[in-house]
């Protein structure tokens, strides 16, 4: 079967992509176990109606098309983009990162989500373990949490001394100014949700075996220490919000709106332009009349179970 370029016009492409994405969303909907159905009813009662599916996905696809233009521009110009995502546990950082990277080249746009520091890393300069993950020319790095662990979880959980925290606050503004002077475009987002919203999301995860992996002992402790995290956040904003590296707060109670608003804002921060491309055409397939395709053994094939 052959296809013409006319078969891939914009409208058909949009409908195809929309159907595919809707299928994924329905899959997530039906994956919720029966145990959490009552919680889901409570969750929906406590939320005003969000954006309807069609409107949401059309907006998301349009933004993702712009992200591809951004990616091409970054690769073409050698720009270096660093985006930091911070916020309380379950605030929606992972959700927006997934939608940003969904259609991008992982060799250009990569996610950095570091585990807890090793003994060796704990003996190093605090920022040292983050430096190897900074973007090089033509790269976008998305930090799912960052050096702000020190003023957040490490502070609240007692993993850092008051002296280390104070040193961190003194170092961060200059460290980030150094990054900006080196040519890195640094953008920092804080995803903000209410106390009640976090509680509901945690309960959903507890009763969903497909999401329980997202809950760690640290996450559960964040519920106990909500007020301590709030105080830590407030001081972090007060001491690390600089003209060179300001904070941007994303209202996260409505997941769909949070994703769209954040991606739209991110695109607004970068003066990207459309990069001209040579027209691509599919070359003719070469047929060799003397070639016979070898029949491979049946045991090499994945069984057709569906």
- Helix count from the secondary structure assignment: 11
- CATH homologous superfamily identity: P-loop containing nucleotide triphosphate hydrolases
CATH architectural grouping: 3-Layer(aba) Sandwich
What's the number of structural domains? 1
What is the level 1 CATH name? Alpha Beta
Tell me the number of strands.
5
Shape designation: globular
The span between the termini is 24 Å
Polypeptide structure, described:
The chain has one domain: 3-Layer(aba) Sandwich (Rossmann fold), CATH 3.40.50. With 306 residues, it is an alpha/beta fold. Strand 2 (109-112), helix 5 (119-122) and strand 3 form a beta-alpha-beta unit. Strands 2-3-1-4-5 form a five-stranded parallel beta sheet, sandwiched between helices. The protein is 46% helix and 10% strand.
Short description:
With 306 residues, the protein is an alpha/beta fold.
Write the layout of secondary structure elements.
Elements: H1 10-30, H2 37-45, H3 53-77, E1 80-87, H4 93-101, E2 109-112, H5 119-122, E3 139-144, H6 153-156, H7 162-181, E4 184-192, H8 195-206, H9 217-224, H10 226-240, E5 247-251, H11 255-268
Parallel strand pairs: 1-3, 1-4, 2-3, 4-5
Helix pairs in contact: 1-3, 3-11, 4-11
Label this structure with key terms.
306 residues, 5 strands, Rossmann fold, five-stranded parallel beta sheet, single chain, globular, disordered N terminus, 10% strand, alpha/beta
């Amino acid at each position: 079967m052959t296809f013409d370029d006319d078969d891939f016009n914009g409208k058909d492409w949009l409908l195809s992509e929309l159907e595919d994405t809707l299928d994924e969303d329905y899959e997530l909907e039906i994956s919720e176990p029966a145990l959490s159905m009552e919680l889901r009813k409570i969750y929906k009662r406590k939320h005003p109606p969000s954006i309807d599916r069609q409107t949401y996905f059309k907006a998301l696809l349009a933004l993702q098309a712009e992200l591809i233009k951004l990616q091409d521009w970054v690769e073409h110009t050698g720009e270096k983009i660093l985006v930091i995502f911070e916020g309380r546990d379950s605030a929606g950082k992972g959700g927006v990162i997934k939608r940003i990277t969904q259609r991008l080249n992982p060799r250009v746009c990569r996610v950095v989500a570091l585990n807890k520091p090793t003994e060796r890393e704990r003996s190093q300069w605090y920022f040292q373990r983050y430096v190897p993950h900074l973007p090089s020319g033509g790269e976008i790095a998305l930090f799912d949490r960052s050096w702000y662990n020190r003023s957040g979880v490490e502070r609240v959980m007692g993993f850092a001394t008051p002296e280390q925290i104070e040193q961190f606050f003194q170092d961060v503004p200059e460290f980030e100014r150094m990054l900006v002077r080196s040519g890195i475009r640094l953008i920092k987002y804080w995803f903000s949700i209410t106390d009640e919203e976090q509680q509901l999301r945690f309960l959903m995860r507890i009763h969903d075996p497909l999401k329980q992996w997202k809950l760690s002992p640290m996450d559960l402790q964040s519920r106990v220490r909500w007020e301590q995290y709030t105080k830590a956040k407030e001081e972090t904003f007060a001491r690390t919000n600089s003209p060179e590296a300001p904070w941007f707060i994303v209202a996260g109670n409505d997941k769909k709106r949070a994703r769209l608003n954040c991606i739209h804002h991110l695109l607004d921060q970068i003066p990207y332009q459309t990069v001209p491309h040579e027209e691509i055409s599919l070359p003719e397939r070469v047929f060799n009349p003397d070639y016979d395709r070898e029949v491979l053994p049946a045991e090499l094939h994945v069984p057709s179970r569906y």
